[in-house]
Amino acid sequence: MRDGLLSASVLDGNPVSVDEVDFSESTTLVREFYEALAAGDRQRLQELLHPRFTGHATEGLPFGLGGDYHGPDEMRRNFWGKIAKNFIARVQPGEFRRLDDGRLMVQGRYVGEARASGVKLDAEFIHILSFADGRISGLRQLTDSERWAEAARPEAAVPELSTVEYSVEGGLATIRMNRPEMHNAIDASMAEELCEVARRCANDPAIRAVLLLGNGKSFTVGGDLAFLSEAKDGELPGLLRAMTGPYHEALRTFSRLNVPIVAGVQGAAAGGGLGMLYCADIVLAADNARFALGFGAVGLSIDGSNSWFLPRLVGMRRAAELYFEERRLDAGEAFEWGLVTRVVPLAELQEQALRCAIRLANGPTRAYGEVRRLFRESLSVTLSEQLGAETEALSRVAATADATGAIATFVDKRKPVFSGR
User: Fold this and answer.
1) Which residues are registered as beta bridge partners of 70?
2) Which of 18, 19, 174, 274 is the most buried (most CB within 10 A)?
C-alpha cells in the first residue's frame, strides 16, 4: 500500500481515544457506517459522523482523491462523492481488530468497476477509525492506489485465461484448474490467473456460490517443481515470492467471499495446492484422493495457508506429523482427520459436487455470507464479542427478503424459494 503510516486521526490537535466505546459497539457503528455509504444515506452518515470528523485518503489515488478532509461534509462531497462519480464500488469489510490505543482497524477490500472503462476494481484496504461521543470522529484509509489507477485507465483490459477455466451460470461460478498434463501444478501463470478469477468472483454480485475443481486425474499437486527447478543460482527466493504473492492473494480473496464454496477433489491434492480446498466450505473427496504436504522432501517450509488452516482443522500434533513425518493420507483418513466433508465414488464426484454447489447457489446467499464471516472471525475474538457479532449479523439477515419470505413459507408449510436478496 502506498500510504504506510498508521498515524492517529487528530481532533483539536490531540489523538482521539476510543476507550469509551467497546469493541462490539464500535464494530456495530462501523458496520452501520459502511451500510450507509453503500445506500448513499446522507442522513444516516450525518448521524454517524462526528461534527469534527477528519479523514485521510491514500496519496496517489486517481482523480485527486488522496489527501486530508476536514468535516463530514467535505469528506462526503469531495471524497465519497467523487468515488461514486467515477466508480461503482462497494466496501467488503473482513477482519475487525481493536488496536492498543483503542482505535478500530478494519481490513477488507474495495470491489466494483470504473464507470468510464468498465474495468474491474479489486483493492485491499485498511481503515483506522477513531471515535468520540459515540460517533466516528476520524478515518485513515490505506489502499493500493495503483489498483484504483489501473481500473480508471481506459486502455486497461481483462486478462485472458489459459491455465484456469472460469464460467458463471445460474449464479454459480465454476473454476477449474486446467493443467491436466502437469496434474494442475501451480506455476506463475496459474497463480496469477487464480488471483484474477478470485477477483472476478468478488466483483460479480450475481454470483451466489463457487465450485472449485481440477481437470484431469488430480486436483492439484501444488507448486510446479519442474518450473522452480529452472531457477538459476540465487533466483529461487525471488521466484517463490513472485508465485506465492498472487496465489496467496487468491486464497485471501476466496476465503473472504460472501458466498459458499464447494470443492471436488480427485487424485493428488498436495503442497500449497491444499490451500484451494481450505477455502471451501464443503469438500467432496473422490475415493482415489490422496493428500500430502511434501515440502520437507524438497527442503522447503510450507505455504498456501497450510500453517494457518492445518492446525485448526486437524490439530497441532497431526499437522506436525503431516510435515515432519511426511505422512500421506488416503480419502478415508482425510475424512477422519477433518480435512474433507465426505468421500464419494470417483465416478460420482463431479455430479455430486455440482449438485451441492447448485443447491447452495439457490440458497439464502446473504445468510450464507454472514455465517462465512462469523466462522472466520470467531478464531480471533472473545466469546462476548462473537455473541455481539452474531446478534448484529442476525438482525441484518432478518431484514432480507429471503428471511422474511422463508419464515412465512415455513409457517404455511411451503418450500421457500430464495432470491439471494
Assistant:
1) 54
2) 274
Residue 303 appears among annotated catalytic residues: yes
Query: Concatenated DSSP letters for 48-78?
Result: HEEEEEEEEE-TT-GGGT-EEEESHHHHIII
pLDDT digits (tens, 9 = 90+) for 173-217: 999 999 999 999 999 899 999 999 998 898 888 999 999 999 999
Helix (H, G, I), strand (E, B), or coil: what is residue 115?
Answer: coil
124 sits in the region (left: phi over 0; alpha: psi -120 to 50; else beta) called beta
Q: Please say if 101 is a catalytic residue.
A: no
Note the pLDDT of residue 5: 29
SS3 state at 235: coil
Cα(391)–Cα(166) distance, rounded to whole angstroms?
A: 36
Per-residue pLDDT band at 154 (split at 50, 70, 90): low
Distance CA(261)–CA(206), nearest Å, equals 15
In order of start, what are the domains of the chain with their CATH numbers? 10-152 (3.10.450.50), 164-361 (3.90.226.10), 373-411 (no CATH)
Considering only CA atoms, give the Rg of the chain.
23
Q: Which residue among 248, 330, 402, 412 is the active-site one? A: 248
Per the residue annotation, which of 122, 224, 281, 303 is the catalytic one? 303
| Percent with pLDDT over 70 in the chain | 94
Give the alpha-carbon dihedral of 124, 384, 38, 250, to 10 degrees. Answer: 30
User: Scanning the structure block, which residue is given the C-alpha cell 439477515?
Assistant: 397
Work out whether strand 342-344 and strand 290-292 pair parallel, antiparallel, or are unpaired: unpaired
Residue 16 dihedral angles phi and psi, to the nearest 5°:
-85, 135
